[in-house]
Specification:
The complex is a heterodimer of chains A (113) and B (110). Chain A is mostly beta strands. Helix content of chain A is 0%, strand content 51%. The chains are: A mainly beta (113), B mainly beta (110).
Chain lengths: 113, 110
């Protein structure tokens, strides 16, 4: 069974940092592009970033460029999102996804003083 | 404002057929395949349609997708109460160099 489990969310002050993790199982992790998508309160889904199978290509939505870094460890079947210089507008549920096809249950990030 | 345009809401009665549209441009839908997702906030999004019109295993054939030019649509036939959810289209955009989602359509089953 394909499973993606996100962790690392929480409450952080503006300007702070968080690192999200996503543990993958039930599929060949190293064979898939992986993504992060988010949903802010009362808003729709927004793609955040994705990373190629070997990590050689990474793409980001403009609003997080220079602040967020997506990475992966294929040996650990894990995906990460390092989030720096967090802003109130980054408050959202963050979902980890495989090839834009299947998704985890999400982890909540709240940026507030 | 989303790059892909969807109606904010749609509704129908049980058993009816409902269609949700998604309008884009040549930088996205016009040149790339479209996915459709069903989502209840706080839960994992579910892929309903991939590559414009392909249903993943386990998705009922009541759900169908199509694409023409720079627009795509999702049709839901034989509407059921548990179809109440938010529906999103998504595709790659080569001018933004990233995936883009529609703003979402909230489906209500009356």
């Amino acid at each position: 069974e394909v499973q993606l489990v996100e962790s690392g969310g929480g409450l952080v002050q503006p300007g702070g940092s968080l690192r999200l993790s996503c543990a993958a199982s039930g599929f060949t992790f190293s064979g898939y592009w992986m993504s992060w998508v988010r949903q802010a309160p009362g808003k729709g889904l927004e793609w955040v970033a994705n990373i190629k199978q070997d990590g050689s290509e990474k793409y980001y939505v403009d609003s997080v460029k220079g602040r967020f870094t997506i990475s992966r460890d294929n040996a650990k079947n894990s995906l990460y999102l390092q989030m720096n210089s967090l802003r109130a507008e980054d408050t959202a549920v963050y979902y980890c996804g495989g090839s834009m096809e299947f998704w985890g249950q999400g982890t909540t990030v709240t940026v507030s003083s | 404002q989303s790059v892909l345009t969807q109606p904010p809401s749609a509704s129908g009665t049980p058993g009816q057929r409902v269609t949700i549209t998604c309008s884009g441009s040549s930088s996205n839908i016009g040149n790339y395949n479209v996915n459709w997702y069903q989502h209840l906030p706080g839960t994992a999004p579910k892929l309903l349609i991939q590559t414009n019109n392909q249903r993943p295993s386990g998705v009922p054939d009541r759900f169908s997708g199509s694409k023409s030019g720079t627009s795509a649509s999702l049709a839901i036939g034989g509407l059921q109460s548990d179809d109440e959810a938010d529906y999103y289209c998504a595709t790659w955009d080569n001018s933004l160099n990233g995936w883009v989602f529609g703003g979402g359509t909230k489906l209500t089953v009356l």
